UniProtKB/TrEMBL annotation:
Keywords: Hydrolase, Plasmid. This is Gylcosyl hydrolase 115 C-terminal domain-containing protein. Residues 790-800 have a biased composition (Low complexity). Signal peptide: none annotated. Residues 781-804 are annotated as: Disordered. Residues 809-981 form the Gylcosyl hydrolase 115 C-terminal domain.
C-alpha cells in the first residue's frame, strides 16, 4: 500500500497505486476525488456486524478531528448524492456486491475479497462514481474485520495515528481531503491471529485503569478499558487478545461487559500459556473450596471448572489454550518422574478435547486451539507428549527476544499450524525487563521472519506488558504480522524514519530515527533494568558493573556520553516540534531515552565514586552526587509522564516496577580527608588504588595507525586547589594541555606525533608537577610501517585487489579487535553474509548468515559451500585465542546445530556450535541474554609474524556476528565490550 502524501494546500492524496498490477495511476497524474472541502462527504454503510458500525463511527470522528467538519453517517445505500464514503462487507448486500464486482472489473483486476480479513479502497468521480454519488470513496472488506481494517487504513492515511489516544499523537489539521482515483487492495494478512498479551499489569496498567481511566472498577479491568485496547488492535490490524491475568486483576470473563465488548469489536479472545480453557486460575481457582490444583489428585473438580467456562463461551469467537501448568505461571503439579508428568499432561489434553467437543456443534478438530510448550512444558513435549495434529503449537521465545525452538520439517505439516509467543516485556529470571521497552526492531524482524519462513503463521502474540511504553515495538510487531516479507524487506532505520514522520512530521524524522537507533544499540549491550548486575528469584544485591572506568578510553564514560548525546538531541528535537506534539514525543521518545540515561548514570557514576574513593580522591563525592541526581531525574520524568494530558496517564508509569534492588539507590564512595592539597596521578588501564606504594604510571602502548588518545587523571587527595604543569621529555609526546588548575580532578589526553617519533619501539616520558609533588608518566609506543592496500606481502599471503582487501587490523596491547561489519573481503557461497543494521552492541551493524531458512553445511563442505568473511590482521607468531561475539540466537529445532566455522590462514576451519539454549536456571544462558552476547572461543597457532587472514564461515542460518577479538597475550581483562577496534586507520 502506498503511503499518505501530504500536500502544501493541506489536501491529501490517498489512493496512490504501487505499480504492481493493481492500477496505473499515480498521485499528481491521475484524477483526484474531493471528499472534504467546501462540502463534506456523507458516510454510508452496509453491515451485519457491530465492528463495522464501530469503525464508521470512528471514521466520522476521525474526519472531524482532522478537518473540523463532521460528516453525516447512516446505514443503507438509498438516496446517495454529492460526495460519499461508502463502506460495506462483501456478501452482505447484493447491490453493494454488484458494485464492488463492477469496480474491480473496470480496473482489470480482482477485488481480492475472497480472502479473509482483506479490503480494498476505490475512488472515482462523475460517471465512474457508483451509488448515484458525484464523488465516491468505496471501502469494501471480505469480512467484518477486513472492512474495519479498510476504514482504519483510510483514517491512518488521513493522518490519524493508531496511537492518537494511547500516546496522544496529534492529528494534522486539513482544510480539504482529496483522494487519487483508482483502486488499492490489501490482505490477507501474513499471520491469521495477531494479538497482544497484557501482562505484569500490577503497577501500571491495572493501577491506571482502576484509579484513573475507569475508577468504578476497583478490582480489575473492565470494558471501558478493553474497548480502548480493542480499538487500538483494530487500528494496528490485530485481531486477538490475551487479557490481563495477574493476581489482583479480576478475570476477564468475571467482569460484566468484557466478553460483549470483544464480540462487538470482533476481537478473538484467547488466554495465556498458563490459563487453559479460558480460565484465569489466579483469580478463579479457590483452593479453599476447590481443592488442590493438581490433575493427579483432583481431576474431577478441575474438569468441572473447565467445563463450566467452555459452556459459557462456546458460542463466541475464541482460541482455547489447552494443556496445563501451575497456578500463575509455575510448573504443572503432579507426577514424580518425567514419564509420569508426560502421561498426566496427555490425560489432561484428552479430557480437554472431550470438553470442547461436548460444547461445540462441531468436532474438536474444528475448534481453534493452541498449545504453548513454555518453560518445563517444552521438556515434556520433547519427551513424548502427543499434541493433536489440529492444535496450533505456539513456540515461545526465551523471554529476551530469541526464539528457542521452531518446528521441525515433520512438524511443519501439522494441520493446526504454528505460532509464536514473543516477549517485548518480561517478569522473571534472570532479571525482569518490563519498564522501558528496548527490544530492537531489528531483532524482532530477524526472529519473526525466521519463524515465518518455517511456516509459523497461525498465531503471533506479543507480551506487551502494560502497552505503554512499548508502543513503538508493538506497532512494528503488528506491521510484521500483517505483511512479514514486505516489512522485513526494509531496514529498521528506514522503518523508524517512516514511523517518526507519521507521528511527528518529516522535518526531524531522520533525527528521531537516529536517536532511537542509538537507544536500541545501547540497550542491546545492557538493558536499563539490568545495570545492577544482579538477578531475581531470589532478588540478589547489586554487583559491580563491568563497564570499565579505566580501560579502553574509559568505557563507562563513553557509554554515558553516548546517552547524553541522544538525550540532548531528543530535547532539541522536542523544542522544534509544535506544542501539540510534545506529549506524544515525550512518551514515545524522550522518556525512555532520558530514563535509560539516568539508570546508567546511577549505576556507573556510583561505581566511579567507589573506584575514586579507593584511589583516595576527595572528589569521589561529586560522582556520588551525580548518581543521586540521576535518581531524582527518573522520579521527575515519571511524575511528568503520569501528569501529562491533564492527568490522563496518572498511575500508568512506575519508576521502579516490583521495587527490585536495581531501582534502589546504589552504594556510593566518599573520602574524608582534612589534609591540604595533595596531587596524585593515575593513568588509563590502572586502578591506582590508594596506599599501595610506588606505582609505575605507564600508559597502554600507542600503536601507530590505531591512533587513539589515552587519558591521564590528575586528582586531589586532599582539599584545596592544585595548580599543575607538565614537562615533556620527548617532543613526540603531544599533551592536550601542559598546565591547569583543579580542586578535585582533571583529565589530560595524550597522543603521539608519529612524524616526530622514533622508528622503533621505545618509551617516552613526561612529568606532572603540582602541590609540591612531581610524578612521572611513561608513554610506550610501537611504530609501524605504512601498510599496503593490497594483501600481497613478503610473507606469501594471498593477494587481492586494493578495493577488496583494504582494511587491516593490528595487534594492540594484546588484542586485535575487529568489528564484524568491517571485513577485508567477502566471498559468498550457498550461504551468504549480509550486514544488518540494529543488531550490534558497538557499531550498530552486525553480519548475519543468510538466507534465514538456508542450508546447514556439513563440516567437510565448509570450504566449497559456505560464505566466508575474511579479516586481515598483523600479529606476532605464537598461540592466540579467538573470541567471536555473537547474539545469543538459537538453532531452529532441537538437535539442529547453530554454528559458525573459523580458520586462520591455511589451517583447516574449526566448526563451532555456540548455542547455549539452556533453561532459565542455566548460568551461561543467563549471562548471554543479560549482555546480549555469546562469547565463543577457539585456540589457534600463528606460525609466523606478520600478516594473517582470519576466515569466518556461515555454516548455519541466522547466525549474528557482532565482533571478533584475537587475543595474543592470554591475559584476562575486565571490561564489558572489550577494546575499541584496532583497525589501521591510515588505510581509510
Amino acid at each position: 500500500m502506498a503511503q499518505m502524501t501530504r500536500t502544501d494546500d493541506h489536501e491529501i492524496a490517498v489512493l496512490e497505486t504501487d505499480g504492481t498490477g493493481v492500477g496505473e495511476t499515480r498521485a499528481g497524474t491521475a484524477p483526484v476525488v474531493p471528499l472534504v472541502g467546501g462540502s463534506t462527504a456523507q458516510i454510508r454503510y452496509v453491515a451485519d456486524a457491530p465492528v463495522v458500525e464501530i469503525a464508521v463511527d470512528d471514521l466520522q470522528a476521525d474526519i472531524d478531528r482532522v478537518t473540523g467538519q463532521l460528516p453525516t453517517c447512516d446505514s443503507g445505500l438509498d438516496d446517495i448524492s454529492g460526495r460519499a464514503i461508502v463502506v460495506g462487507t462483501y456478501g452482505v448486500d447484493d447491490a453493494f456486491d454488484r458494485t464492488v464486482d463492477q469496480l474491480a472489473t473496470d480496473d482489470e483486476c480482482d477485488h481480492g475479497l475472497e480472502a479473509r480479513e482483506s479490503y480494498f479502497l476505490w475512488a472515482g468521480s462523475g460517471d465512474d462514481a457508483p451509488f448515484g454519488a458525484d464523488d465516491a470513496l468505496v471501502i469494501a472488506g471480505s469480512d467484518p474485520r477486513g472492512t474495519a481494517y479498510g476504514v482504519y487504513e483510510f483514517a491512518r492515511r488521513l493522518g490519524v495515528s493508531p496511537w492518537y489516544w494511547w500516546a496522544d499523537v496529534p492529528t494534522p489539521e486539513r482544510d480539504a481531503v482529496r483522494v487519487t482515483a483508482g483502486l488499492e487492495r490489501d490482505g490477507p494478512p501474513s499471520v491469521r491471529y495477531r494479538g497482544l498479551f497484557i501482562n505484569d499489569e500490577d503497577f501500571g496498567f491495572r493501577e491506571w485503569a482502576q484509579r484513573t481511566h475507569d475508577p468504578p472498577t476497583p478490582d480489575g479491568i473492565g470494558p471501558k478499558t478493553y474497548e480502548r485496547v480493542f480499538e487500538l488492535l483494530l487500528r494496528l490490524k490485530g485481531n486477538t487478545i490475551w487479557p490481563a491475568m495477574h493476581e489482583g486483576t479480576r478475570a476477564f470473563y468475571r467482569y460484566e461487559g468484557n466478553r460483549e465488548a470483544a464480540e462487538r469489536y470482533s476481537i478473538v479472545v484467547g488466554t495465556s500459556h498458563c490459563e487453559p480453557m479460558h480460565r484465569n486460575n489466579v483469580d478463579e481457582w479457590d483452593a479453599s473450596t476447590d481443592g488442590e490444583w493438581n490433575y493427579e489428585t483432583n481431576a474431577e473438580r478441575i474438569r468441572e471448572y473447565w467445563d463450566d467456562r467452555v459452556a459459557e463461551v462456546a458460542g463466541h469467537e475464541n482460541v482455547f489454550t489447552v494443556g496445563m501448568r501451575g497456578i500463575h505461571d509455575s510448573g504443572m503439579p503432579g507426577g514424580d518422574t518425567r514419564d509420569e508428568r508426560v502421561a498426566l499432561l496427555q490425560r489432561v489434553l484428552d479430557d480437554q478435547r472431550d470438553i470442547l467437543e461436548e460444547h461445540h456443534d462441531a468436532p474438536a478438530e474444528s475448534v481453534p486451539q493452541i498449545f504453548c510448550p513454555y518453560k518445563e512444558v517444552l521438556d515434556l513435549y520433547r519427551n513424548g507428549l502427543e499434541v493433536p495434529d489440529d492444535v496450533c503449537i505456539v513456540w515461545p521465545d526465551d523471554n529476551f527476544g530469541y526464539l528457542r525452538r521452531l518446528p521441525t520439517d515433520e512438524e511443519r505439516s501439522r494441520s493446526g499450524g504454528h505460532g509464536v509467543y514473543y516477549h517485548l516485556s518480561y517478569w522473571g529470571r534472570p532479571h525482569d525487563h518490563q519498564w522501558l521497552c528496548s527490544v530492537p526492531p531489528a531483532l524482532i524482524r530477524e526472529e519473526l521472519q525466521r519463524a515465518y519462513r518455517r511456516d509459523v503463521d497461525r498465531l503471533w502474540i506479543a507480551n506487551v506488558g502494560d502497552i505503554k511504553p512499548a508502543e513503538t515495538e508493538t506497532e512494528y510487531f503488528f506491521e510484521l504480522a500483517w505483511d512479514v516479507e514486505g516489512v522485513a524487506a526494509r531496514s529498521t532505520t528506514d522503518w523508524l524514519t517512516e514511523w517518526a514522520a507519521r507521528k511527528f512530521g518529516p522535518s526531524r524524522a531522520a533525527d528521531i530515527a537516529d536517536v532511537l537507533a542509538e537507544y536500541y544499540r545501547l540497550a542491546l549491550a545492557r538493558k536499563p533494568e539490568h545495570v545492577g548486575w544482579n538477578s531475581v528469584y531470589p532478588d540478589t544485591e547489586k554487583n559491580e558493573p563491568t563497564f570499565s572506568a579505566i580501560d579502553h578510553g574509559d568505557e563507562a564514560r563513553r557509554r554515558l556520553e553516548a546517552y547524553e548525546r541522544i538525550d540532548e538531541t531528543a530535547a532539541a528535537i522536542r523544542e522544534d516540534l509544535p506544542a501539540e506534539s510534545r506529549t506524544a514525543f515525550f512518551h514515545l521518545v524522550e522518556y525512555p531515552i532520558r530514563c535509560a540515561r539516568a539508570m546508567n548514570e546511577r549505576a556507573l557514576e556510583a561505581m566511579r565514586s567507589r573506584l575514586y574513593a579507593g584511589q583516595g580522591r576527595t572528589g569521589a563525592e561529586t560522582y556520588a552526587d551525580r548518581s543521586r541526581a540521576a535518581f531524582e531525574r527518573i522520579e521527575a520524568a515519571t511524575e511528568r509522564y503520569n501528569a501529562s494530558s491533564d492527568g490522563k496517564w496518572r498511575g500508568m508509569m512506575s519508576a521502579s516496577p516490583r521495587d527490585l534492588p536495581v531501582f534502589d539507590p546504589p552504594a556510593t564512595g566518599h573520602v574524608t580527608d582534612d589534609q591540604g592539597p595533595t596531587l596524585d596521578v593515575t593513568v588509563e588501564g590502572s586502578a591506582g588504588v590508594a596506599g599501595t606504594g610506588l606505582r609505575d604510571r605507564r600508559l597502554p602502548t600507542f600503536v601507530q595507525g590505531v591512533d587513539r588518545p589515552r587519558f591521564v587523571d590528575c586528582y586531589n587527595r586532599g582539599t584545596g586547589t592544585i595548580e599543575w604543569s607538565a614537562t615533556v621529555d620527548d617532543e613526540w609526546i603531544d599533551l592536550e594541555r601542559t598546565a591547569g588548575m583543579f580542586d578535585e580532578d582533571d583529565r589530560l589526553w595524550v597522543t603521539v606525533d608519529w612524524d616526530a617519533a622514533p622508528d622503533s619501539a621505545t618509551t617516552g616520558r613526561f612529568r606532572i608537577e603540582g602541590a609540591g609533588r612531581e610524578l612521572e608518566v611513561a608513554v610506550p609506543i610501537r611504530p609501524r610501517e605504512q601498510p599496503s592496500r593490497s594483501a600481497a606481502a613478503a610473507d606469501g599471503s594471498e593477494s587481492g585487489s586494493a578495493d577488496e582487501r583494504a582494511p587491516i587490523f593490528v595487534e594492540s596491547n594484546g588484542r586485535v579487535a575487529i568489528e564484524a561489519d568491517h571485513p577485508t573481503a567477502v566471498e559468498q557461497g550457498d550461504t551468504r553474509w549480509e550486514p544488518v543494521e540494529g543488531l550490534s552492541r558497538t557499531t550498530g551493524t552486525a553480519m548475519v548468515s543468510r538466507p534465514v531458512d538456508g542450508p546447514h553445511i556439513d563440516a567437510d563442505a565448509v570450504h566449497s559451500r559456505a560464505a566466508r568473511l575474511e579479516y586481515d590482521f598483523v600479529a606476532d607468531a605464537g598461540d592466540v585465542r579467538v573470541e567471536v561475539q555473537l547474539l545469543p540466537t538459537h538453532g531452529p529445532t532441537d538437535g539442529t546445530p547453530h554454528r559458525y566455522a573459523i580458520g586462520i590462514d591455511d589451517a583447516e576451519p574449526t566448526v563451532v556450535d555456540f548455542d547455549a539454549n539452556g533453561g532459565e536456571h542455566d548460568p551461561q544462558w543467563q549471562r548471554n541474554v543479560l549482555r546480549s552476547s555469546v562469547h565463543s572461543t577457539t585456540d589457534h597457532e600463528l606460525d609466523r609474524a606478520g600478516r594473517h587472514t582470519l576466515s569466518l564461515y556461515a555454516t548455519d542460518p541466522a547466525v549474528v556476528v557482532d565482533r571478533v577479538l584475537v587475543i595474543t597475550d592470554g591475559e584476562a581483562r575486565r571490561s564489558y565490550l572489550g577494546p575499541l577496534e584496532t583497525r589501521d586507520r591510515r588505510l581509510d
